[in-house]
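To whoever is on call:

I kicked off a structure prediction for a single chain this morning and the downstream step that reads the tokens threw a length-mismatch warning. I double-checked the sequence; it's 181 residues and nothing unusual in it as far as I can see. Pasting both halves so you can look.
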Amino acid sequence: MRALMFGQRGPFPFAGLFIDTMNGPDVTVGWSGQVAGAFDPLVAWRASRAISHALTRAGPPQANRRRALSILWARLDGVRHEELGPMRGKDLAILLVARDDEGWAISGVGMGEVYLVDENQFRPWITGAHPLLCEPGLPARRPGALLIDELDGVLVGVRMGQPSPNGRCVADVLPRCGVHQ
């Protein structure tokens, strides 16, 4: 299972980028996101480490897919905003995914589009008006989750305000997500 974030434009496309996956007995969770990416790379790195540490510190959630996402959001609630760079986390974009025997749950903030990479194709998956696509930042209340039965492929979040990568081939997209083939 993979969740990726399309790197931002500019000289440091991966500044503040974080990505991880954790496998538990009942659920696998994964995420990718970016915070403080417009600032000094060291500031961005510290902010991304604060997010990563909050999400991983207690190990994989011991829950079903929907509850697992709620647990991850609760872990983010505990991050001190001053650790998240000059914007205090108001620039956070994150894509969270969870998979259990029943299917998938997807949640996030700060994305303008979500794409699916499957069988060497890169295509729009969620665009337009959808609750998953919203302003960046630590949410005041926990976002909901999109529940689906099956998902084959890799999800790629595109930050709100970033140009759409639609029409690009997979060989161009994955390196922009920090994936080297």
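Update from on-call: the warning came from a stale cache, not from the record. Cleared it. Sanity check on the structure: The radius of gyration is 15 Å.
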